[in-house]
Amino acid sequence: MSEWSTKHSGPAIFSETQTLGFLEKVTSEKIQQSLILWVKEISDWSKDKAYLVGHIKVFVEGLENLWLSSTGRSINIKHSQGWSEWTADMVTLNVTAIVFGTSKKVLEEVAQERLKACFNFGTELYK
Amino acid sequence: MNVLLFGGFLGSGKTSIILQVARYLVKGFSKQQLESDKPSLVIIENEVGETGIDDKILKAEGLNVRELIAGCICCTLNAELTVCLNEIQEELSPQWVIIETTGMAFPHTIAETIAKYGKGIDSLKTIVVADAERWDELSTIMPDLIEEQIVKANIILLNKIDCLEPEQVCGVKESIRRINPSALFYAISAHDEVNPQIWRTAVTYCE
Ligand SMILES: Nc1nc2c(ncn2[C@@H]2O[C@H](COP(=O)(O)OP(=O)(O)O)[C@@H](O)[C@H]2O)c(=O)[nH]1
Ligand SMILES: [Mg+2]
Q1: Cβ–Cβ < 8 Å for B11, A54
Q2: What Pfam families does its record include (chain B) (predicted)?
Q3: Which of A115, B35, B129, B155 is the most exposed place for a label (fewest CB within 10 A)?
Q4: CB B69: neighbour CB atoms within 10 A?
């Protein structure tokens, strides 16, 4: 068993609120796919490194809402009623990833970099 | 004021279950309670990290939620939680308060603090959610934390049984029973509508 688990050290936490603006309107479907990809990538990265996922959660705040949640296995998806028909020029993302076995710095770098890569379509970060 | 204190590891299903329990409690409120400006149910969410997420899910359901964000995961905010609870008691004195602790907290330590310093509390029950899907993994990697969370629970909800075969559920139940033989025990799946009889028993047991 790895050292971190026997020592019971705390997990690394990445937790942020970001407001994204899009140059052109983006469908909710595209936002959802990007975020699902992000959750998958953090899960896969953790698995590759033999880290343990505490949980990964996303809440999208706009006119409509999307909630993604995972413990590193399947991803659960819930959304508000009008989500599927929505197109956005701006969204606020609340994201949290809690991972055991790595440092806050490394997790933050990976999570930020992957998030940027998942939103590689005319996106501006406001905050 | 009746307090339901929820514990259990990260991602075990606490928020999903609280949503169902909250709906159950609200259904039982009188017209007068529902029309009053003071809510009869208040939920305290203790989350880690700068950004709360579960509190937003509960708020989106129209529930009355207070947030307590802990910057650090090992900080269970014992003192702040008691202060928050006492404020709620003074301002609103609701019939029910549900507290969701962080997935790393030891619910019984929090329960002891609340029992000692909390005001106007008629009943306090600790409900711990265990994650059936990850039971083997978690009880291997962090047995102390998992056992410590369960050992003094009044009610144990083994959640996500949809992810296991019935024999596996029996196996997990046995290991939980070895840690805590006296708690009320229910195996559930919060993805489905849980039999309200379970909430009725849990809640009556708490009154
Ligand atoms: N398969 C399955 N997944 C569940 C169940 N209950 C909750 N989940 C999922 O487990 C994850 C964590 O749930 P959540 O309620 O946020 O747990 P919390 O972190 O303890 O508050 C989410 O992805 C849920 O959709 C269940 O009964 N079965
Ligand atoms: Mg929660």
Answers
A1: yes
A2: cobW
A3: B35
A4: 17
In this predicted structure, which of A9-13, A45-49, B66-70, B92-96 has the lowest mean pLDDT?
B66-70
Give the chain A residue whose CA is nearest to the CA of B134: A71
Tokens of B132: 């059936």
Distance B196 CA to ligand 2 centre (A): 21
Residue range B47-61, pLDDT digits in tens: 877 778 999 989 988
Q: pLDDT digits over B66-114, tens only?
A: 988 765 555 556 778 888 999 999 999 999 999 999 898 899 999 999 9
Question: Cβ A69–B11 below 8 Å, yes or no?
Answer: yes
| CA-wise closest residue to A30 among A102, A89, A106, A107 | A89
CATH for A3-119 is 3.30.1220
**Which of B73, B21, B22, B64 has its CA nearest to residue B44?**
B64
Report how far residue A39's alpha carbon sits from residue A33's, in angstroms, rounded to the nearest whole number.
Answer: 10
Order of all β-strands in the sheet with A12-27? A75-79, A65-70, A52-61, A87-100, A12-27, A123-125
User: In whole angstroms, what is the distance from residue B150 CA to residue B131 CA?
Assistant: 12
Count of C-beta atoms within a 10 Å radius of residue A107: 22
Q: What is the ipTM of this complex?
A: 0.89
Q: Which two tokens stand for residue B23?
A: 């709906």
The CATH architecture one would assign to domain B2-206 is: 3-Layer(aba) Sandwich (3.40)
Neighbouring C-alpha atoms within 13 Å toward the C-beta of A36: 12
* Chain Cα centroid distance, residue A45: 13
- Domain locations along chain A: 3-119
